[in-house]
C-alpha cells in the first residue's frame, strides 16, 4: 500500500487586512478542507476524489476567492474557473467563465468524465452542470461582505485582489491528482480566463513526475506555463519536486514581478509548498505523518 499525502492552498499574494483580521478562520477553513480530503484517502479513495472534496469545501467557504466569496468582475458579477487532472492516464477537465454554479470543480470533473472535451466555457459548462444536476445558486450567493466592499471601494489594482484554492494528493494506489478553482482577479474584464483552469499552467498531474496546483498572478503563470514546467524539469533533469519548484520560482522567475505559489506532491508522497510573496495560505499532511497549517 502506497503512503498517502495531501496539500491544500487558499491563495498566495500580498498580505492583507482581511487575512490579518481572520487568521484563525482561514486556518480553520484550510484545516477542514485538508481533513475532508485526507478522510477520502484514508478510506482508500482516489486522489482525484480527495482533491475534489477538499476543493468543494473551500468553494463553499466565504473567505476564499472561489465559489462563495469569489472576486467581483469589472462588470459587477462573478465568473468562475476550475480544473482537475489525474496523473495515471493524464485525464483532465476544466471550465472557464462559469456563472451560477456552486461548485465549478464538480463541473470540471463532469467534463473530464462524461464529455469528449477537456475544456468548456460559459454556457457550455453550465449545460454540463445542469445535465448532471449539480447545485446552482443565485448571483447574490457568490458575493460576500468583503468582496462587495472591495468592489465598492473601487480600488482597481487587480494584482492586489486575487486568490484561488487548490489541492494535490497521492492515494493508496500511488496515483496523484490536482485540482484548482478560482474567482479570478477583482475588477477583471468579463471573459478573462484564469490560469487556474488552464491545464499545464495552474494545474498539472503526471504519476511519473508530480501533481501541482498554482496560485498567484495568472497572467505570469500562463506566460511561463508553470505547472507543466515543474513537471518537465523533474522529467528531463531528474530533479526532485522541491528542486523543480525552487528552480522555477527562485531561479528562472526570480526577476518576475508576479506573485506565485505552488503546492505539489509526488507518487512517492513527497510534498512541496513554495512561494515568492508574503503569504501562501496552506495546510498539509505528508506521508511521514507530518502535518500543519500556515499562512505566511
Ligand atoms: N491565479 C488566479 C488568477 O489569476 C488568482 C490567484 O491565484 O490569486 O485568476
Features:
4-stranded antiparallel β-sheet, alpha+beta, binds aspartic acid, 35% helix
Question: How would you portray this structure in words?
Answer:
The chain is α+β, with helices and mostly antiparallel strands. The protein is 35% helix and 24% strand. It has helices at residues 17-21, 23-42, 47-60, 104-114, 122-131, 139-142, 145-153, 218-223, 226-237, 241-252; strands spanning 5-13, 80-86, 92-98, 119-121, 165-170, 176-182, 203-205, 211-216, 260-265, 271-275, 279-285, 291-294.
Helix proportion of residues, in percent? 25-40%
Main sheet, how many strands, which sense, barrel?
8 strands, mixed
Structural class: alpha+beta
Strand order of the largest sheet: 4-3-2-6-5-1-11-12
How much of the polypeptide forms β-strand, as a percent range? 15-25%
The unique ligands bound to this protein are: aspartic acid
Over the alpha carbons, how many angstroms does the gyration radius reach? 17 Å
How many beta-strand elements? 12
Q: Give the ordered list of helices and strands.
A: EHHHEEHEHHHEEEEHHHEEEE
Number of helices: 10
CA-to-CA gap between the ends? 34 Å
Mean pLDDT: 95
* 3D shape: globular
List segments where confidence is low: pLDDT < 50 over at least 5 consecutive residues: none
In short:
With 296 residues, the protein is α+β, with helices and mostly antiparallel strands.
Task: Give the SSE map.
Elements: E1 5-13, H1 17-21, H2 23-42, H3 47-60, E2 80-86, E3 92-98, H4 104-114, E4 119-121, H5 122-131, H6 139-142, H7 145-153, E5 165-170, E6 176-182, E7 203-205, E8 211-216, H8 218-223, H9 226-237, H10 241-252, E9 260-265, E10 271-275, E11 279-285, E12 291-294
Bound molecules: aspartic acid.
Aspartic acid binds next to β1 and β8.
